[in-house]
Amino acid sequence: RLDQRHRVEAELRQRIEQLEKRQTQDDAVLNVVNRYWNQLNEDIRVLLQRFDAETADESENKNESEATTSFLMQLSSWDKEELDDKLAHRVQVSKRAVSKVVQAFDRLSQRNEKITLALKGEYDGGDEAPNIDEVVRKANSEIQAENRNLQAINIQLHEKYHTMSLKMSELQDALTGKDTLNAELRNQ
């Protein structure tokens, strides 16, 4: 009877180890998914800025700040129903952002097509063909506005890169310190 109990305990320990290992693997996968999802949302935000089409409402800005926090930490505190709601909301925000990028790209394509047709003299509209000088002036002013927007984004990205580089150096120094402390403790 004692042998049977030891066997059951050993099997249960093995099962616990397997479950802990699987939990660790699942956490690692969730970390990767979360990181790439956050990167997708950030890339979409930059694209929307690039197209000068970002019309984020307050709930999207709130969600963006939530996305920068650790989603996994939040996962542990939500019950199943709340988790489903939060994930659905996050998916909805991402879908809306992608839709805005597609719309902005479509508007840009239509504008470029209109300019091309006007320059070729093949305007298809029901009205008379627009004056080429007018089309070129309008395109020039749009390009200048886009250039200013790109310069502002470039400055923001440089600032973000600088901040992240400093943070990376700080974390690298902390890691080096911990590694040194770890090595010292092993040598004692």
Automatic annotation (TrEMBL):
One of its GO terms (biological process) is protein ubiquitination. It holds the Pfam family CC_Bre1. GO terms for molecular function: ubiquitin protein ligase activity; zinc ion binding. Residues 18-169 form the BRE1-like coiled-coil containing domain. Keywords: Chromatin regulator, Coiled coil, Metal-binding, Nucleus, Transferase, Ubl conjugation pathway, Zinc, Zinc-finger. It is found in: Nucleus. The keyword Metal-binding applies. Its EC number is 2.3.2.27. Pathway: Protein modification; protein ubiquitination. It is an enzyme of class 2 (transferase). GO terms for cellular component: HULC complex; nucleus. The keyword Oxidoreductase does not apply. It catalyses: S-ubiquitinyl-[E2 ubiquitin-conjugating enzyme]-L-cysteine + [acceptor protein]-L-lysine = [E2 ubiquitin-conjugating enzyme]-L-cysteine + N(6)-ubiquitinyl-[acceptor protein]-L-lysine. Belongs to the BRE1 family. PANTHER family: E3 UBIQUITIN-PROTEIN LIGASE BRE1, RING FINGER PROTEIN-RELATED. This is E3 ubiquitin protein ligase.
